[in-house]
Amino acid sequence: MDYAASDLTPRERYKVLTSFILPRPIAWVTSMGPTGVVNAAPFSFFNAFCEDPPLCMFAANRKPNGQDKDTFLNIQRTGEFVVNLADEPLAKAMHESSGDFPPDIGEPDYLGLKLAPSTRIAVPRLADTPWAMECKLWKMIDVNDDRRLIMGEGIHFHIRDELWDNEAMRVHMDRYHPIGRMFADRYCRTDDRVVFPAAEGVKRS
């Protein structure tokens, strides 16, 4: 079975992409509104792409009614945001934060999520997440005027203490249980893991 992308509607292309490109990491993005309300929203068109400088990108589309999402408006205004990653204990709250909230009601406050101050930006992070990265807006790309690719430069990292070996600079994978996005309202756990020996490539005589 095959399709020309141009023969599909945007919704159909979305279904093809999100049905097979998975699991996807989820950026649980906190941003700050003009009155100080803290917004938290998950985005699964997301990943990190570079370490020098540390760059990540996520895609923010418009709401079904055509209005811009609070996350986009907040980042456009302040140039700051935090990418938080959710683990299993926080998965339900992360999912619930994807619901429709008016700008004057912050998801963390409504869902009882604790906030912690960031170190180098004004936008707070979610205190209980296993990992968070403070970001400055690096570049924003408009796609067809209905979706923005938001690229952020990570300027400060926060890691839950018991997850990190500071000397080896490695995560304790047996203690870290991130959640991945599948499609629709389906998510996956990441505990069933496979380890291969180092790849050798072609042996030369």
Automatic annotation (TrEMBL):
Keywords assigned by UniProt, alphabetized: Flavoprotein, FMN
Keyword Flavoprotein recorded: yes
Cofactors that this protein relies on: FMN
Annotated GO MF terms: FMN binding; oxidoreductase activity, acting on the CH-NH group of donors, NAD or NADP as acceptor
A Pfam cross-reference name: Flavin_Reduct
Domain Flavin reductase like span(s) in chain numbering: 19-178
Protein name (Swiss-Prot/TrEMBL): Flavin reductase family protein
Species this chain originates from: Bradyrhizobium rifense
